[in-house]
Amino acid sequence: MSDLPSIRIGLGHDTHRLGEGGPMKLGGITIDCGFHLIGHSDADVLLHAITDAILGAACLGDIGTLFPNTADDNKNRCSQEMLRLAHAKILESGWKIINLDCVIFATQPKISPYRDTMIQCIQQTLGLKEGQVFVKGKTGEKVGPVGRCEAIVAECVALLHKVPISN
After folding, report:
1. Whole-angstrom Cα distance, residue 32 to residue 131?
2. Are 68 and 74 within 8 A, CB to CB?
3. Staple partner for 52: which of 12, 111, 155, 167, CB 3.0–4.6 Å?
4. What is the rounded CA–CA span in Å between residue 95 and residue 142?
5. How far apart are alpha carbons 12 and 156 in whole angstroms?
6. Hey, where are the domains in the chain?
7. Which H, E and C letters describe the chain, residue by residue?
8. How many CB atoms are located within 10 Å of the residue 70 CB?
9. Does domain 7-162 have CATH number 3.30.1330.50?
10. Alpha-carbon gap, residue 65 to 112, rounded angstroms
11. Is the peptide bond before 164 cis (omega within 30 degrees of 0)?
């Protein structure tokens, strides 16, 4: 494995249906709106995409393997906790995050008013610095489940680098 590059890219993707009534957990923050995300855990679609991206880049599985939705202890589980545990796993394997670039596809709520708070929450959760995380929102332009306010989709691209082992 020593001949592999010391940087890796991971892609994370997740989709959750929307239900009536809020609040919503998204990007590690609580948004007071008329919808909530439906899932086995707290259904934070953005944190799930980030978790998958970092695990995939490090070849350490995925969120479904680490936190199966068939396990009772994952019912209503906090996605920040899952992300922290996945991050610890990549750190133990010698990987560090260079940056995360994230997209939230949602008609409601609008993402821009919450973007900076989400970025700060993700940076704090992962111990990252300013400039290592970006989040952007895209509407569904009234097309498909996102455009009809039936679902929210999130994607994340993560760039990781292998930390040199010191002797």
Report:
1. 27
2. yes
3. 12
4. 40
5. 5
6. 7-162
7. CCCCCCEEEEEEEEEEEEEECCCEEECCEEECCCEEEECCCCCCHHHHHHHHHHHHHCCCCCHHHHCCCCCHHHCCCCHHHHHHHHHHHHHHCCEEEEEEEEEEECCCCCCCCCHHHHHHHHHHHHCCCCCCEEEEEECCCCCHHHHCCCEEEEEEEEEEEECCCCC
8. 7
9. yes
10. 32
11. no
**125 confidence band (pLDDT: 50, 70, 90):** very high
CA distances, 45 to each of 26, 53, 95, 139, 160 (Å): 7, 12, 23, 15, 21
pLDDT tens-digit profile of 78-121? 999 999 999 999 999 999 999 999 999 999 999 999 999 999 99
Other CB atoms within 10 Å distance of the CB of residue 67: 20
Kindly state the tokens that stand for 97.
Answer: 């995050």
Give the pTM.
0.94
Q: What order of strands is seen across the sheet that includes strand 133-138?
A: 35-38, 7-20, 151-162, 95-105, 133-138
What distance in Å separates the CA atoms of residue 127 and residue 95, rounded to the nearest whole number?
14
Rounded alpha-carbon distances, angstroms, from residue 23 to 13, 37, 106, 135: 22, 9, 15, 20
Residue type, 105: F
Q: Say if residue 68 is preceded by a cis peptide, omega within 30 of 0.
A: no
